[in-house]
Amino acid sequence: MKAQISISVKDTIPTCLGANFKIATTTNAGTGATFSWQGPNGYTSSEKDATITNLIDKGMGVYTVTVSITGQSATATTLVKSNAIEVAVIGGFTNVCVGENLRLRDVIIRNANEQPLSYAWTGPDSYTSTASATNIPTTEDLRQVGTYTLTETYENGCIVIASLVPTVNKCLSIGNLVWNDTNNDGLNNNTEVGLGNVAVRLYKAKIEGGSPTNNVDGVAIQTTTTNATTGKYLFANLVPGFYIVEVEAPTDYKSSVGVNGSPTGIYEPSISANDDINNDDDGTTVSGQTVRTNYIELSNYTEPQNDGDSTNGTAADKNSNLTIDFGLHKSECPAIPKCVPFIAKKI
């Protein structure tokens, strides 16, 4: 009696979405046997082994193969299911300030039994890594900004790819007031008003021997004028570092000294602009009408919060120093710099 033919395939075939794979059969049918496959999404084939290309969701399910020869037939089925990751995204610290690190990692819903065999990161500025997460310092030139791609390879052959463009911000800012110091005391009193349309320049402080100095480093990096009504100014989109602010006093105005009628005082020269004290004179005359601060350090999330920000108590407030003020006093004898007016005494 002729042996009954048989055919078998694996009960379950785990694979990945987008994969190309073959369902192999084992049969004792000899030469001349015919095969008929049927499967999801209208799949058919007459080959001994079924070949599936670019598996999609609709292609998952039960595949049935029938082998026939000389009046005999046998049937086998297999379940094709996906081990694909349902969600593949990159998370972590993806919106940072210059000076902070980009810390990116995968945020993936996966089968608990499946963990990546390998990680491969690529990104801007020729960045590559095989670590599971990144820790990339950010710099003022923003060369770290661009698309980061993570490729994860799994033991079952699945490859999952996720991409992200993180945000790197220049978070810091500095300002605030140039005012008419009518009593020349170096303090902004309630009745004293701002001076509008005063030229203001921002410089990087020169670094020597690894330490900041009170000298400017090159040309101004930003320029502006004070608000015509309020006398306020603001420099934004700054990064951590050391800065110097400079104003050009209007004709007949001089830097406040702190003692009316004297060419010198506690605010001339100014002791420090880096003290986070609000509403006092931070400028010192360097030549003619040019008045400058000493160096000021800006750092992410460390700036004063009692300086009148409209975003008080927020991260934006912590990144804004609005304590850099300039008191300018209108000279009583403008033709003579630093003059001391004659004060008549009673006899």
Descriptors:
mainly beta; Sdr_B; disordered C terminus; Immunoglobulin-like; seven-stranded antiparallel β-sheet; signal; single chain; five-stranded mixed β-sheet; SDr/BOS_complex; rod-shaped; 3 domains
Summarize the structure.
With 347 residues, this protein is an all-beta fold. It contains one helix and 31 strands.
Can you offer a commentary on this structure?
- The protein is mainly β and 347 residues long.
- Helices cover 1% and strands 43% of the residues.
- The protein is built from one helix and 31 strands.
- Strands 21, 22, 23, 25, 27, 28 and 29 form a seven-stranded antiparallel sheet that branches. It has a five-stranded mixed sheet with strand order 2-9-8-5-6, with no helix packed on it.
- It is rod-shaped and about 120 Å long.
- This is SdrD B-like protein.
Using only C-alpha atoms, the radius of gyration works out to: 37 Å
| CATH architecture classification of the largest domain | Sandwich
What's the main sheet like? 7 strands, antiparallel
Taking pLDDT < 50 over at least 5 consecutive residues as the criterion, the unreliable ranges are 341-347
Which percent bin holds the helix content?
Answer: under 10%
> How far do the termini sit from each other?
148 Å
Mean pLDDT: 85
Strand pairing plus helix content: what structural class?
A: mainly beta
How many beta-strand elements?
Answer: 31
CATH class of the largest domain: Mainly Beta
The CATH homologous superfamily name of the largest domain equals Immunoglobulins
With helices defined by DSSP (H or I, 4 residues minimum), what is the helix count?
A: 1
Overall domain count: 3
Q: Hey, roughly how much beta strand do the residues contain?
A: 35-45%
CATH topology of the largest domain: Immunoglobulin-like
Structural shape:
rod-shaped
InterPro entries: Ig-like_fold (IPR013783), SDr/BOS_complex (IPR051417), Sdr_B (IPR033764)
Keywords: Secreted, Signal
Subcellular location: Secreted
Protein name: SdrD B-like protein
